[in-house]
Amino acid sequence: MSEPRVTAAMFEAGQELASPKTKPSAWRNWMGRQADRWLWRWIGRRAPRWFERLLPASLLARFLLVMTLGVLASQLLGNLIWATYLKGKSEQEVRQASLHVAAGAISAIQYFHSLPLNYRQLVIEQMREMGGTRFFISANNAEVKLQSIDRNPLADVVLQAIHHDVIGRLPQLYALKVSFAWPDQLAVNNAGTFISELPDHWIKNTLLIQPRPAPILVIQAQIEPGQWLYLATLMPDPFFLENSDPLPPERWLLQFVTLLTVLLLSWVVARWITGPLAALSNAAEAFGKGESPILPETGSVEFVRTAQAFAAMRERIVRYLEDREKLFTAISHDLRTPITRLKLRTEMLDDDATRAEFHEDLDELDMMVKGALQSVRDSDIHENHTSISLDAMLGRMVRDARLAGHEVAFTRCGLRVQGKPLALKRAIGNLLDNALYYGRSAEISVFEGVGKRVIVIRDHGPGVPEEALETLFDPYVRLEHGRHSNSHGHGLGLGIARNIIQAHGGELLLSNHPEGGLQAMITLPGV
User: For residue 63, which of 257, 268, 301 has the smallest C-alpha distance?
Assistant: First the structure.
């Protein structure tokens, strides 16, 4: 469908409505009508075929699929927004905390650099005994080799900020090393002493080792040749690295529970919606098979109205079928009287040839009337559905045909179908009669499919032209070969058979067999 276009007439109409003489409500009403028209045109477009094939067949499955995709999309977008916000906030907070730690480290480095060399170790020991300091400090004659933690975006922000700030304010330093390490792997001097080996009162107010260790920031500054100052401390938030994960397992669990809750509620709502639709579908299918289903007028207002409309439609159709049968019966009765009178008057004709032609035409007219009445009655056989053994039904038909001198091949199958016995026998009998009339011999095969039964009746006649296959079900259609083989037929048997099979929820297909002859394939629902 082409895109809606604003024509010149529409534009002029819009200008007229927008003129000062026109009330504003008129312009809004006109724009509303145009928007509604464009919206409904857009809604009315069919989805691409490849997209339709990807969708599940049932309305319930489609509803749950759309809700699942919608919830997942909203959660994904929400997580993306949350992760972006949390990342920016965490980096900002960590950078500010890094500058605060860097300021303390700069003060400590400046203080120890100002002390004489022989006083530095004494001050360090006094600070360890007193406690209460921010840094654990040691003096070494070389850099202490550390095993750093794994790379982390927030840790990199801290290391870069501290290194940049310290170097910027203490350019006289010979070297500067900044890193993070875990307590159990942290050495404090060149002798290989670990923090875990130190007395508790040296580090209990400075570092966290037990019960939940936190990463330790280590700053090593070379203040003089051969003199390294070792500073170890914690960030203001010791567990700041956990903020680098915006989606912890607890959040994933919460979102999974949310998704399950939404799907459960969607399933309940979808069942409320599709339940009445399924009941309506079953009722329509049962009514098509000749039953009289009754929809309960309970539930939502829309379903109650639908049930009432369905009941009214069913009553109208039943009345129509009854009136149709009465009409055909009356027509048949009324036509027989003038046909009989015409036959009597024909006997009074002197010309034998003319009298024979009149008799032939009247006989054909009589057969057409009887055939029309039979077509109406045979398509509406009132029976209850029951389980039918195909072996028993087809076996009796085959035996009758063989007693009449016909050749029919049939193999027992042990399958059953659900339907009206007399109606199905009439439909299959019409097809078998056609096969015997026009093909002289017939073969009946029964196959089991997925939830269905397939009955194939094949004759060994000349077949049917491909262009004529579609017209065989039309009333009074008979091909030249059929008129010669069966001069008493009316051309109604195939139409009656198809109507009966379709009323059972099945399908009748006619085709030419590759090896010759015509074959009729009946597909019926299984038991």
Answer: 268
